[in-house]
Design brief:
Layout lengths: L19 E9 L5 E9 L8 E5 L18 H11 L3 E5 L19 H15 L8 E6 L1 H12 L3 E7 L6 H12 L4 H12 L12 H4 L4 H8 L3 H4 L7 E6 L7 H10 L4 E5 L14 H9 L8 H11 L1
Parallel strand pairs: 3-4, 3-5, 5-6, 6-7, 7-8
Antiparallel strand pairs: 1-2, 2-4
Helix pairs in contact: 2-3, 4-5
């Protein structure tokens, strides 16, 4: 397996640290929904910088990497670090999240394709913007699969970064995660996942499983499960960078290996002591990580992560 080589030592000392300016921006999707985001750019540059469009992970994760249960500012800090080094960023709230909440949006009407089309709308908005030399899609966690599909469909995309992305379909990910949390319930869970994978909903779900498999969320799961990231990443013709952290407790090394095996010409790196939320930790204990990393809004992202993305983007 190839390793992605980067300038670790003097690199950061040889680049200018740029002041930044921000714009509150919005875009209208094909279905008429309005998405809101933040465009951040270096104040002064010698030439047009690349624009990295950042796609947040699963659940109600907003443009900054936060949700109602945790605040860590991971995507905000990553954006700030990239802009200081001459790269523009766009981070945004996906449909139904943060500022992009849509009145009367019903959960059963939301599909994974809505998220893909939302990201595509941003690419279309900035594809001809002369302030940027190229567009790079960077998807974190669930956002990685969204980004793969966007990079396939939008020819103006010049590169793709999978950041802590899964390499297996969502049915297999859920199977693995739930088997660890509730092994005694797998005799009930496996048939549900098998049905969803076939595109069929399960109307009667025991109350204990409603948080994951309630009927109103099943259409979304079906729309997501049909995509296998290891299959989709093979279809990309743009440069690809695959990044994982060795202290990531949500996405395993199995997923990283699956993506690398599927896209053998991609650059790739496993970053030591990086958690799923892109911050440094020396432990794999979930409770410790949650309170010291996931819930720490002041801890910066891992510096090596920033350098790797800068080198790939430039």
């Amino acid at each position: 397996m190839k390793k992605y080589l980067c300038f670790v030592g003097a690199f950061m000392l040889t680049v200018a640290l740029y002041a930044q300016k921000t714009e509150d921006v919005s875009v209208t999707t094909e279905k008429g929904a309005t998405l809101y985001g933040t465009l951040t750019m270096p104040e002064v540059v010698d030439m047009a910088p690349p624009l990295v469009i950042m796609i947040a992970g699963s659940g109600p994760t907003d443009r900054n990497g936060n949700n109602p249960q945790m605040k860590n500012n991971s995507l905000l800090f990553l954006s700030d670090a990239l802009v200081k080094n001459g790269i523009s960023t766009l981070r945004y709230d996906k449909l139904g999240i943060g500022q992009s909440v849509v009145k009367d949006l019903k959960e059963e009407e939301l599909s994974f394709e809505d998220y893909v089309q939302g990201a595509e709308s941003w690419v279309k908005k900035y594809s001809a913007d002369t302030r940027f030399s190229k567009i790079i899609i960077m998807g974190h966690s669930e956002g990685s699969l969204i980004g793969m599909l966007v990079a396939q469909r939008q020819k103006s995309v010049g590169g793709f970064i999978s950041l802590a992305g899964t390499g297996r379909d969502m049915a297999e990910i859920l199977r693995e995660q739930l088997a660890k949390q509730a092994p005694q319930a797998m005799t009930v869970i496996n048939p549900i996942l098998d049905s969803l994978k076939k595109g069929k909903t399960v109307p009667d779900v025991m109350p204990q499983l409603n948080a994951i498999f309630r009927p109103s969320v099943q259409p979304f799961l079906i729309s997501q499960i049909k995509y296998d990231p290891a299959v989709e990443i093979k279809k990309l013709t743009v440069p690809v960078l695959i990044i994982s952290g060795d202290k990531d407790l949500q996405v395993s090394k199995i997923d990283f290996d699956a993506l690398c095996a599927a896209k053998t010409d991609a650059k790739n790196i496993v970053i030591a002591n990086m958690s799923h939320v892109l911050k440094e930790t020396d432990t794999t204990d979930m409770q410790t990580q949650f309170f010291k990393v996931y819930m720490n809004p002041d801890l910066p992202v891992v510096p090596l992560l920033v350098r790797v993305i800068i080198n790939f983007s430039k």
